[in-house]
């Protein structure tokens, strides 16, 4: 996929910790991110890897929680936004950075009509009349492919389907033409047919508006379909990063290899899918050395004693693994290529449509 533009969002050594009664939880522990203008960066990892907390840290939405950014910088167009005032953060949210959450039903106001909610979002950031804001809200909903817009503007969230609610959230997020859109697993709660429509919509709107997207997901098929670059997280740390084709063709970290190996391959029949043994460790009691070592089939003595740094492989591909210290990445055996995952995704949707199953 083509990379465009300069780096619009630069995150360096981000650490977000939660102070709980049981002790300190390091949810995000030294994350680095580079999001290029007009591109889509995929954030991948199991539940509890720190994906959503990283997004909330970037958005400045940790207030009211026990979470706090303890270290690091978040630069938007070169300006550090970690230590700006709450008033400045409110202006950024929705204006320069917008976010779509996983479950739109809990994000929309149940007692306010759809039109009023989109209109309110526009009025918060633009000095225009209510009539102009209403017309723009209607235009944004049309852009997202919402049916019978005139009627839906007066309806409430409970009257809409899951896919329609997600389109409303996308319309709200893009209504003020943000530079960055953070999508936190926006298709997880949707069936595969609607998921495909939402992904196509996001790709189309990205091309039309030039918005950069930080896409958080655990679905590797979605990553293959929509992302330009990928960052893999584990225990609040980045363990691998590369462009999407390189990551799928030559995964360097055993964790990434395990994630890819657990995806069923089209036309390949196996009795049992590969899986990563064990569970994600308790963030309050992380193991010494490499955090993935207790689950890694390739771990050796050093892995349990000392945590590896990032080893640069080639062309922006880097991995946090001792196996990468003195060698470059090569083709990984039995790893599905990006094109295979896209084909699987399309075939799965066709099967769903044909059989009428959710």
List the helices and strands and how they pair.
Layout: E1 7-20, E2 23-36, E3 40-44, H1 51-59, E4 67-76, E5 79-80, H2 86-92, E6 97-100, H3 104-107, H4 114-125, H5 130-143, H6 149-152, H7 162-174, E7 180-184, H8 192-209, E8 212-217, H9 220-226, E9 229-234, E10 237-243, H10 244-249, H11 254-261, E11 311-314, E12 317-319, H12 338-355
Parallel strand pairs: 3-8, 3-9, 6-7, 7-8
Antiparallel strand pairs: 1-2, 1-4, 4-5, 9-10, 10-12, 11-12
Helix pairs in contact: 4-5, 4-7, 5-7, 7-8, 9-12
Written description of the protein model:
By secondary structure, the protein is an alpha/beta fold. Helix content is 34%, strand content 22%. The chain has helices at residues 51-59, 86-92, 104-107, 114-125, 130-143, 149-152, 162-174, 192-209, 220-226, 244-249, 254-261, 338-355, and strands spanning 7-20, 23-36, 40-44, 67-76, 79-80, 97-100, 180-184, 212-217, 229-234, 237-243, 311-314, 317-319. The strands form two sheets. It has an eight-stranded mixed beta sheet with strand order 6-7-8-3-9-10-12-11, sandwiched between helices. A four-stranded antiparallel beta sheet has the order 2-1-4-5, with helices on one face. The longest helix has 18 residues, at 192-209.
């Amino acid at each position: 996929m083509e990379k465009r533009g300069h780096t619009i969002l630069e995150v360096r050594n981000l650490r977000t910790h939660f102070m709980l009664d049981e002790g300190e939880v390091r949810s995000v522990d030294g994350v680095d991110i580079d999001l290029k203008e007009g591109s889509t960066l995929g954030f991948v990892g199991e539940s509890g890897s720190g994906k959503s907390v990283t997004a909330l840290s970037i958005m400045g939405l940790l207030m009211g929680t026990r979470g706090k950014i303890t270290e690091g910088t978040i630069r938007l167009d070169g300006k550090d936004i970690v230590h700006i005032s709450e008033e400045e953060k409110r202006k950024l949210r929705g204006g320069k950075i917008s976010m779509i959450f996983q479950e739109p039903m809990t994000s929309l106001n149940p007692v306010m009509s759809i039109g009023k909610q989109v209109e309110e979002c526009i009025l918060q950031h633009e000095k225009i009349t209510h009539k102009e804001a209403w017309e723009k809200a209607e235009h944004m909903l049309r852009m997202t492919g919402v049916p019978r817009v005139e009627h839906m503007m007066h309806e409430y969230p409970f009257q809409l389907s899951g896919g329609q609610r997600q389109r409303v959230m996308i319309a709200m997020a893009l209504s003020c033409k943000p530079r960055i859109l953070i999508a936190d697993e926006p298709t997880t709660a949707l069936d595969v047919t609607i998921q495909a429509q939402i992904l196509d919509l996001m790709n189309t709107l990205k091309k039309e508006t030039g918005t950069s997207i930080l896409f958080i997901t655990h679905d590797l098929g979605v990553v293959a379909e929509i992302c330009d670059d990928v960052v893999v997280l584990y225990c609040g740390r980045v363990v691998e990063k590369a462009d999407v084709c390189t990551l799928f063709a030559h995964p360097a970290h055993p964790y990434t290899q395990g994630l890819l190996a657990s995806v069923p391959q089209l036309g390949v029949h196996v009795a049992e899918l590969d899986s990563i043994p064990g569970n994600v460790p308790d963030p309050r009691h992380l193991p010494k050395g490499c955090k993935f070592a207790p689950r890694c089939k390739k771990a050796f003595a050093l892995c349990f004693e000392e945590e590896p740094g990032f080893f640069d492989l080639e062309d922006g591909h880097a991995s946090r693994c001792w196996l990468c210290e003195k060698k470059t990445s090569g083709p990984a055996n039995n790893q599905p290529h990006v094109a295979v995952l896209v084909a699987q995704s399309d075939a799965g949707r066709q099967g769903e449509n044909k059989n009428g199953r959710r």
